[in-house]
Structure formats: structure tokens, C-alpha cells
Design a protein that fits this description.
The protein has about 350 residues and is mainly alpha-helical. It is built from 17 helices and two strands.
């Protein structure tokens, strides 16, 4: 079978039925799958999705302290900017455009490490990257790990239920996973270690990286504004980590075709350009599905793209050595012909 058909761990309810139609499991089936895949006592290879959600739960005390002890207009503003803009834009810069699509390259490993750790770490690269390749190959089709047509909960819990890599990959297919991940700087398990841990990432290194990242940023926030600012921004990071799990459901029209002519030119799936994710995180999603490897997805003048601005600034500073930009192709192939057709 094709690699992208088998690289992800199939949920108990499957991707499609005998007739090839999308399986739309009920809430009970989704929740049973979710908790079974977090159970490291049943299978230690469940460690990575458990760690991903442990990060979210570890943020809850910080969020409570922010709301009930340190709440003010200024901390609320800081939380808003950090969760909505900084964390969102960083997710686009790092996980989306670099780790998954290789839309740009760094001039050396330092700048890659710098960009990777530019914010509080919340999402494991492995869970995001491999599944996102499948998402583009099967967008809104059976096998899409966060298929909006299967409902909100299907998308919201996808990082556990649908996105981890399969635990029974052949050595050849595991090396294909490594090829998709090697540029990220996340050190790979050997095939023997993969068979033991069920992942590309090693748990010891992953937990150490988590501890170092959080320690650095808590100290930095504390020095800048005491416990009030540190709790505020850590709580905001946790809030973002929950919110981002809702994005693909919204970004694909909640499973319906709500595309607007002249705004959404990619009609091969239900992806849509949305003002809010576009402005705060550079996520013009329909444009991105047109040109996944573009370092810029805000093609039109009003389509603010903070992620693109970061990449361009880093390029001018010499930190980014090259990038791909498909703005000219977008205008030549889609926007200009549409305007000409409209004028007639």
C-alpha cells in the first residue's frame, strides 16, 4: 500500500467503511479511542500523545493563578498577544512552513534551534509533521487525520486518535519517516528504539527538551515581570494549545463547503481563507492548500502574514538562507484571470 495510507496508526473505528466511505464515529467511540491511546500502562508506546496532553494539563495551575491572582488589564492584554499572535505565528513559522513543508531553509543549526524554541514548547514536531503530510494528500477524504466532515470532536482529539505514527512500520517505512523529519533537528530513534517506543522521537530527549524550554522561558518571563507575567504567559500558552486543536475544523468549513468565489481558489477540498487566523497567525488556509510549500500564504494586500514577515526579516539578517514564495504564481494563475473574467 502507498506509504501515506499506512504511516499513521489506524483508529479502532477505522478510516473508512467497506464501501470506502468516511467513518463518522460517535462521541463514545472517539473518547474510548482517546483514553486508550493515553494509557502507557497498557502500551508504553503511547508515551508521545500522553506527553502532548500532559503539557496542556501542566499549564492549568498557571492559568488559574493568572485568572484568580494576577488578573489585570495588562496581564489580559499580554495573554491575548502571546496566545493569539505570538504562539499562533510561531506555530505557522516552525511546525507548518518549516518542519512540514520545508518552505525555507536556515543558514545554520543555531538559527533553527533559535526559531524552534522561540516560544514555550507545546506541540511535539513528530505528531504534527507526519500527519500533516497525510492531511494534504487526503484533505477532506477518508484517511485525513483531522477530517472536518467527521465532526468537531474527531478533529479536536486528532493529535491522539489519528496523528501518531503507526507502531508496526517496516524498517523501510520507518526510514521514510526519518527522511520527512531529519531537517527538523529532532534526533531520531534507531529502528530498534522505534520498535520499543513506537515513535521517531526518544522519550528521554523529548522530556529533557521540554524541561529546558519551560525552565528557560519561565525564568525569562519572571525576570521581565515576576510571577504575574510568567503565570500569565504560561497560562496563555496552554490556552493556545487547546485552541489550536480546533483550527482545522473551522479552517475546513466545519465539514461543509463554505468557500467564497474570488477568495478561495483551491476547490479541491473545503479549506477556506479566514480573516482572524490569517491576521494573527499568517494562516490563510485556502492559499496554503494552493501552494503548500510557499513561505508566504498572505498573497493579497490585505492578507497580513506575520509568519512571512519573520521569515523575510531572518533572510535579510542572514539567518534564513533561502525560501519559496508563490505570490507571483498565485496572481498569474488565479487572481488576475478571475478579475478579467469578472470584468467581462
Amino acid at each position: 500500500m502507498p506509504f501515506l495510507d499506512t504511516v499513521l496508526q489506524t483508529p479502532a473505528y477505522g478510516w473508512k467503511d467497506a464501501a470506502g466511505n468516511l467513518v463518522r464515529p460517535g462521541a463514545g467511540a472517539i473518547l474510548r479511542e482517546f483514553f486508550s491511546r493515553l494509557n502507557i500502562w497498557a502500551d508504553r508506546r503511547n508515551w508521545l500523545p500522553l506527553m502532548s496532553w500532559m503539557k496542556v494539563f501542566c499549564m492549568m495551575p498557571f492559568l488559574f493563578l493568572f485568572v484568580f491572582r494576577y488578573f489585570s488589564f495588562w496581564t489580559l492584554l499580554a495573554a491575548f498577544l502571546y496566545s493569539m499572535v505570538i504562539m499562533g505565528t510561531h506555530g505557522t513559522i516552525w511546525h507548518h512552513r518549516y518542519c512540514t513543508h520545508g518552505a525555507y531553509t536556515f543558514s545554520n543549526k543555531f538559527w533553527r534551534f533559535f526559531t524552534q524554541n522561540l516560544t514555550v514548547s507545546m506541540i511535539p514536531e513528530e505528531i504534527y509533521v507526519i500527519s500533516h503530510h497525510v492531511h494534504h494528500a487526503k484533505s477532506d477524504q477518508p484517511g485525513d487525520p483531522y477530517n472536518a466532515k467527521a465532526g468537531f470532536l474527531y478533529c479536536f482529539l486528532a493529535d491522539v486518535n489519528h496523528q501518531p505514527i503507526a507502531k508496526n512500520l517496516s524498517e523501510t517505512d520507518y526510514y521514510r519517516v526519518k527522511a520527512l523529519m531529519k531537517h527538523t533537528g529532532v534526533k531520531a530513534n534507531t529502528f530498534k528504539q522505534y520498535q520499543k517506543w513506537g515513535s521517531y522521537a526518544n522519550p528521554t530527549r523529548a522530556v529533557l527538551a521540554w524541561a529546558l524550554n519551560w525552565s528557560f522561558w519561565y525564568c525569562a518571563f519572571y525576570l521581565a515581570g515576576g510571577h504575574a507575567l510568567a503565570c500569565c504567559l504560561f497560562g496563555a500558552a496552554g490556552f493556545w494549545a487547546v485552541g489550536v486543536r480546533t483550527f482545522n475544523y473551522e479552517g475546513h468549513g466545519k465539514g461543509k463547503n463554505v468557500q467564497v468565489e474570488g477568495n478561495d481558489f483551491n476547490t479541491g477540498d473545503n479549506s477556506v481563507n479566514q480573516i482572524w487566523p490569517g491576521i494573527v497567525a499568517g494562516e490563510w488556509h485556502n492559499n496554503h492548500h494552493l501552494y503548500p510549500k510557499s513561505a508566504r500564504s498572505g498573497f493579497k494586500p490585505y492578507q497580513v502574514d506575520l509568519a512571512w514577515y519573520y521569515i523575510r526579516i531572518m533572510n535579510r539578517l542572514g539567518a534564513v538562507s533561502s525560501y519559496k514564495d508563490f505570490k507571483k504564481q498565485f496572481y498569474a494563475r488565479y487572481h488576475v484571470p478571475y478579475q478579467e473574467k469578472k470584468s467581462h
